């Protein structure tokens, strides 16, 4: 014991002498008459206790000399141990509170898009405008061929014969024709609502999953005396279920069988109508009802839509269905004319949407938006030859952004007859006018006068009634907003609408119909603009509040990181803050509460929705917290102001590069191919950077370049992953080879300073010597099971229970093994890579299995790049910057302060995190939900278990990225929570961008994608934290070797 004590004392004395000797030249300046260092001039310690006291005094003296994110040297000394403990507990509570605040903030702000973009335009309480003209028709027949494309309807077949001879004869002899332009989403329900009710898709239908209109609305059927409707169970009940004056019927859903020719559905609708007329001969009440005026007959013909989905619109079945529809239109016309014999029936034939060549619809492609429109009968103009005088409104664009007077294709054979195109919502006021009914009160359609055959005075009255109906919606919305607003801003162009109405009435009474028509159309156009004005009235206020909230959240996170994880946490102005901070903070928070209360009162007076209060409360609260730190912000500004101009440029340059990378990531959500160019360029830059520190013969620069280039291939591949069993098996071999290479490197890189930190030397060895061989065996066994399971499925054989058990066992057991691996960086990451590989292989169907290995190679290249920068950098690091500052509350033992250059690590993490998301598609891709992906685990349909397996498959690449990120923070001795907060702050830059990219117009897929992109970024505050917690199970005990002898003991 005595020998041991003396040896220990001697070693400690030598360490103390060495430390004091290193600083004596800094602390003593003979030329200035400085006194010798008192500690150094003292005699050597006599015992172990005195030695420890001297060492502790010297250690405290050296603490806090590291360069931080602003390059400021911290000279503050810590307080007592008890104070430090309390402050650390306070920091943990604050960070838990920050996470909770982030979750609440993102959840509340995510709901804001429904108040901004997806607020229903439908209002109730307007009175219908009774027209002042005589109805030209007693009844109207509406035929809607679901999914009928305009070109397939008008063009001839391969033999030169036209597919719709009857309706073609109508176009040439009896009525008018054109193209009805639909607005995306080009789906059945929105299309029929536009035709019958006169308005386009209600954005708030997103809350119903696009399955139904969330708000009751008016329609032509509501205004009719009676409506007869027959057709699909998905369409007819929307308009007739709650309509008392309607007679309707629909076939069972089972009739909609894609495996058969669906034209029989059209015949079913016709048969129902024919049966109705036949029954009326024996039913006097029905007969009397049919002879009344203001009747509507609606036949929904679904055959083209079903056949288009099943067989594509260029198939013989679809094209033959066009002939069936034309034949039904001819039979309906003959049947009605023979029954009523009064020439008081108007006919309209159209479609709700078209059909793409792929057999789908929904977007704004012309094949989906262009539908046929043919009108004839009572009140409809006859055909008119085309002439130059007919070409008007050449600058007008339709609702689908197509130009007015688009040239008619020559193959249609109708170039000599005037074509009158309309917006789809214009059909509703056209039907109302033909029947002499008030337009639906929610309609935004404009009456197409070129279809109406009435006197000039009646036409003016019809347009005026249409304009008054739109104006009534505008006035109702204006009144509602004015009654609830303290600072109401009216729509100035219609401030004197009554004067315009009086002028129109005067012109009508003076028989100046042309001037009255022009004023009426102008009034209608202004009213439509006014509707859009009040629909977006609160947008500026809400978007400002939400944007300020996100900006405040990011600033607050940055301030927290600066105060807790940089050298500013111990800067001398901390003492300055404590003098006045309590009183000043109380004043700021009191002002914030008063301001919050004033805003809440104003919102309450304006009867704003409850969520408006939540948006403003969160935003005001965040900025109150920011202003509470104004002492720190002022001191920070003073330090920046005193820095060299070069350093300010460096900060601004870092910010600019960060924003560029984040905007690149935003665009990558819609253009996956951008990652290909990204990794091609990054591969070159990384290899050249490494070459400055490493020779080419080391292989590291070449490896980094090839790994990036290999990964760049995958974002060029289709998201719909084709099944390829051989690729999955081959990727298993590749994964084993990557594991063997990493294992060899781990065991044979001793003595190389560039590999020392990541290899297994001097670390805890695994308790299972054959662990690597066992993991490699499981990867190989999973490849064999992939082959066996797939062969059973291909041969239509049932998956054996033994095979199913083996697959579950391999997947579960392999993910536990990394916990027992050696705790060296490379050893543990290799074990994690091999541990998740069997599960990923068993859930793979094609090239995504190779993506797993490619992503791991890039992650390894990232680790090697950071390791090279750490140990080969020409910038000297102060030893104190690598040590823990004991009196700092933000740093755990062994961590250093964050620096400006460390921003590259969160940015790189975000790029790789997104690559893991988009490398083989995304959550919405077809491949993500391919049933064969889970067939090796379960064959009985179980949606929840299958969805869980598929989502876990998508999570595995994320977990690899986060494990590598955690290892790099340990390698660089960075505080991981500080990096997490930087990731969240940077991701919210993307969140703000996606907030402004949310769409409420377009196809359901486009609208849904814009919402999902915003939602994905909003959820990262929780999603990333949960993955951090999960992966921490595997990475928490990773130990890093050090090339610095002075710090190796601390680690």
Automatic annotation (TrEMBL):
Ethanolamine phosphate transferase involved in glycosylphosphatidylinositol-anchor biosynthesis. Transfers ethanolamine phosphate to the first alpha-1,4-linked mannose of the glycosylphosphatidylinositol precursor of GPI-anchor. Its main location: endoplasmic reticulum. It is a multi-pass membrane protein. This is GPI ethanolamine phosphate transferase 1. The chain crosses the membrane at residues 97-118, 539-565, 586-605, 645-662, 674-691, 703-721, 727-745, 766-788, 800-820, 849-872, 905-924, 944-965, 977-998, 1010-1030. Residues 28-52 are annotated as: Disordered. Gene3D superfamilies: Alkaline Phosphatase, subunit A. GO terms for biological process: GPI anchor biosynthetic process. It is found in: Endoplasmic reticulum membrane. It holds the Pfam family Phosphodiest. It is an enzyme of class 2 (transferase). Pathway: Glycolipid biosynthesis; glycosylphosphatidylinositol-anchor biosynthesis. Keywords: Endoplasmic reticulum, Glycoprotein, GPI-anchor biosynthesis, Membrane, Transferase, Transmembrane, Transmembrane helix. Its EC number is 2.-.-.-. GO terms for molecular function: mannose-ethanolamine phosphotransferase activity. InterPro entries: Alkaline_phosphatase_core_sf, GPI_EtnP_transferase_1, GPI_EtnP_transferase_1_C, Phosphodiest/P_Trfase, PIGN_N. Belongs to the PIGG/PIGN/PIGO family. PIGN subfamily. It comes from the Eukaryota. Residues 529-1003 form the GPI ethanolamine phosphate transferase 1 C-terminal domain. One of its GO terms (cellular component) is endoplasmic reticulum membrane.
């Amino acid at each position: 014991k005595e020998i041991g004590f003396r040896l220990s004392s001697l070693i400690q004395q030598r360490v103390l002498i060495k430390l004091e000797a290193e600083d004596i030249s800094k602390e003593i300046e003979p030329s200035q008459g400085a006194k010798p260092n008192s500690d150094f001039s003292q005699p050597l310690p006599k015992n172990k206790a005195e030695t420890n006291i001297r060492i502790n005094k010297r250690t405290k003296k050296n603490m806090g000399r590291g360069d931080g994110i602003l390059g400021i040297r911290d000279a503050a000394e810590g307080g007592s141990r008890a104070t430090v403990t309390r402050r650390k507990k306070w920091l943990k509570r604050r960070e838990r509170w920050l996470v909770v605040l982030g979750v609440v903030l993102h959840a509340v702000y995510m709901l804001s898009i429904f108040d901004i973009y997806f607020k229903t335009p439908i209002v109730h309480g307007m009175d219908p405008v009774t027209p002042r003209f005589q109805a030209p028709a007693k009844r109207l027949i509406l035929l809607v061929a679901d999914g009928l494309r305009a070109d397939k309807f008008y063009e001839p077949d391969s033999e030169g014969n036209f597919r719709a001879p009857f309706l073609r004869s109508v176009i040439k002899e009896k009525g008018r024709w054109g193209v009805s332009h639909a607005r995306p989403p080009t789906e059945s329900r929105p299309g029929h609502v536009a035709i019958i009710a006169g308005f386009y898709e209600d954005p708030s239908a997103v809350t119903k999953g696009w399955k139904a209109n969330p708000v009751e609305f008016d329609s032509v059927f509501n205004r009719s005396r009676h409506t007869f409707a027959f057709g699909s169970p998905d369409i007819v009940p929307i308009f007739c279920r709650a309509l008392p004056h309607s007679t309707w019927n629909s076939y069972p859903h089972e009739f909609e069988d894609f495996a058969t020719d669906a034209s029989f559905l059209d015949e079913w609708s016709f048969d129902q109508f024919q049966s109705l007329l036949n029954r009326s001969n024996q039913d006097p009440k029905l007969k009397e009802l049919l002879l009344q005026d203001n009747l509507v007959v609606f036949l929904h013909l679904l055959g083209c839509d079903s056949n288009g989905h099943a067989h594509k619109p260029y198939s013989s079945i679809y094209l033959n269905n066009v002939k069936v529809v034309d034949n039904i239109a001819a039979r309906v016309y003959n049947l009605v004319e023979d029954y009523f014999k009064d020439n008081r029936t108007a006919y309209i034939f159209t479609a709700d949407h078209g059909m793409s060549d792929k057999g789908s619809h929904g977007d704004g492609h012309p094949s989906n938006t262009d539908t046929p429109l043919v009108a004839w009968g009572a009140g409809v103009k006859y055909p008119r030859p085309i002439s130059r005088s007919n070409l008007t409104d050449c600058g007008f664009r339709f609702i689908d952004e197509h130009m007015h007077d688009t040239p008619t294709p020559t193959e249609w054979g109708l170039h000599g007859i005037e074509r009158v195109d309309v917006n789809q919502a214009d059909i509703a006021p056209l039907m109302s006018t033909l029947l002499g009914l008030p337009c639906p009160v929610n309609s935004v359609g404009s009456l197409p006068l070129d279809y109406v055959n009435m006197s000039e005075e009646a036409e003016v009255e019809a347009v005026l009634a249409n304009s008054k109906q739109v104006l009534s919606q505008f006035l109702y919305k204006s009144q509602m907003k004015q009654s609830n607003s303290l600072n109401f801003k009216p729509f100035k162009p219609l401030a004197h609408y009554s004067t315009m109405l009086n002028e129109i009435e005067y012109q009508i009474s003076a028989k100046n119909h042309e001037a009255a028509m022009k004023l009426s159309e102008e009034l209608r156009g202004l009213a439509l603009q006014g509707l859009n004005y009040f629909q977006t009235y609160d947008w500026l206020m809400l978007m400002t509040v939400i944007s300020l909230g996100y900006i405040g959240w990011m600033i607050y996170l940055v301030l927290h990181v600066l105060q807790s994880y940089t050298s500013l946490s111990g800067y001398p102005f901390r003492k300055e803050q404590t003098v006045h901070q309590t009183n000043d903070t109380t004043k700021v928070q009191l002002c914030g509460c008063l301001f919050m209360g004033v805003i809440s009162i104003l919102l309450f007076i304006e009867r704003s929705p409850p969520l408006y209060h939540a948006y403003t409360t969160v935003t005001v609260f965040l900025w109150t917290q920011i202003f509470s730190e104004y002492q720190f912000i002022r001191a920070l500004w003073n330090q920046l102001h005193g820095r060299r101009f070069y350093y300010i440029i460096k900060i601004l340059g870092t910010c600019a590069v960060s924003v560029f990378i984040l905007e690149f990531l935003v665009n990558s959500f819609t253009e996956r191919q951008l990652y290909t160019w990204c990794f091609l360029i990054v591969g070159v830059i990384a290899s050249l950077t490494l070459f400055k520190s490493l020779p080419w013969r080391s292989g590291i620069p070449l490896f980094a370049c090839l790994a990036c280039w290999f990964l760049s291939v995958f974002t060029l591949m289709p998201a719909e992953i084709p099944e390829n069993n051989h690729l999955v098996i081959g990727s298993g071999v590749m994964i084993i080879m990557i594991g063997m290479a990493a294992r060899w490197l781990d065991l044979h890189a001793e003595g190389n300073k560039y590999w020392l930190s990541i290899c297994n030397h001097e670390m805890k060895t695994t308790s299972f010597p054959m662990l690597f061989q066992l993991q490699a065996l499981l990867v190989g066994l999973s490849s064999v099971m992939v082959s066996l399971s797939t062969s059973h499925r291909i041969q239509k054989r049932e998956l054996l229970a033994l095979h199913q058990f083996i697959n579950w066992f391999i997947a579960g057991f392999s993910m536990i093994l990394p916990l027992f691996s050696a705790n060296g960086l490379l050893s543990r990451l290799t074990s994690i890579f091999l541990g998740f590989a069997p599960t990923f292989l068993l859930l793979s169907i094609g090239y995504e299995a190779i993506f797993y290995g490619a992503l791991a190679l890039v992650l390894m290249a990232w680790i090697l790049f950071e390791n090279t920068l750490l140990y080969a950098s020409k910038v000297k690091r102060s030893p104190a910057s690598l040590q823990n500052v004991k009196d700092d509350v933000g740093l755990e033992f062994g961590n250093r302060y964050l620096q400006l250059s460390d921003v590259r690590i969160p940015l790189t993490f975000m790029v790789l995190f997104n690559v893991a998301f988009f490398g083989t598609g995304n959550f919405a891709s077809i491949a993500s939900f391919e049933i064969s992906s889970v067939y090796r685990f379960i064959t009985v349909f179980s949606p929840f278990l299958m969805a869980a397996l598929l989502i876990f498959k998508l999570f595995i690449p994320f977990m690899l990225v986060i494990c590598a990120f955690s290892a790099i923070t340990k390698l660089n001795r960075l505080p991981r929570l500080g990096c997490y907060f930087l990731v969240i702050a940077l991701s919210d830059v993307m969140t703000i961008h996606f907030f402004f990219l949310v769409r409420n117009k377009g196809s359901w897929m486009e609208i849904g994608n814009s919402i999902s992109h915003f939602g994905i970024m909003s959820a990262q505050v929780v999603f990333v934290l949960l993955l951090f917690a999960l992966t921490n199970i595997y990475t928490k005990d990773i130990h890093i070797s050090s090339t610095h002898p002075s710090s190796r003991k601390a680690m």
